[in-house]
Amino acid sequence: MFGSRTELKTEAQIRTMRRAGLVTRAALEAARAACVPGATTAEVDAAAAAVIADAGARSNFKGYHGFPATACISINDEIVHGIPGPRVLETGDLVSIDCGAIVDGYHGDSAFTLCVGGWDAASAADRRLSEVTEESMWAGIAAFATAKRVGEIGAAIEDFAEREAPDLGLLEDYTGHGIGTQMHMEPEVLNYRARNMGPKVRPGMCLAIEPMLVAGDIASRTLDDEWTVVTVDGKRAAHWEHTVARHAAGIWVLTAEDGGAARLRPYGVVPVPLED
User: Fold this and answer.
1) If pLDDT is split at 50, 70 and 90, which confidence band does 270 have?
2) Where in 172-260 does DSSP place strands (E)?
3) Which single residue of 122, 187, 205, 212 could bond 126 by disulfide (Cβ 3.0 to 4.6 Å)?
4) Is the pLDDT of residue 70 over 60?
5) What pTM value is reported for the model?
């Protein structure tokens, strides 16, 4: 899955990744808007694809090891890598959408979870599952701002999830990753605490930080399509992800419009944009 080395970017290269990140964000927002009751997942995928094409960018998911679509769209008990198709969305479905874009050879990658029909249509359990997953991601991103080792990110994710929702399951089989001239690169970014704290964090390091939590047991299996990963017990799942750069002056969330400022403020972290 991963490339062979940790790639450190120049500030100019990170600015290019910011462009890829903003295209990725726009594609996800189009997919969000298309996620209405009665829509098919293929229609949601087409909305994301149109935004990427209109920006003059390329999808980094379509064709990746044979993946047939622009976005991974995973519903209810599907954790990740769901393939868009004729499935019709229903009010109350919990949907995770993951996609990315390539701009001038550099990648963006991001994901979020929503409830079809809006969060007022969700159960309290589904809303909590998504909220804890999202906030565990932000805890990991905040840790990246001051981390000396990559493993501090996973420790922060696990600490938050265990403190706030010990009844939820934190997936261990799927991880975050380095990102840059490839979508998946070293280093592996675990979503849990490990004895090996991983490589040193250095300026120019760009990471995709992406926890996945489930409402039940963390055991999973892959369907016969060889892509879609589901929970074994049929319980629901959530997935959140951002691409984040650590540069000489601080961090910047490349796939967030404000660089992560609003969500990092409670952690005392002030993201710093790169100068033009």
Assistant:
1) very high
2) 176-178, 185-189, 205-209, 212-214, 220-222, 229-231, 237-239, 242-247, 250-253
3) 122
4) yes
5) 0.96
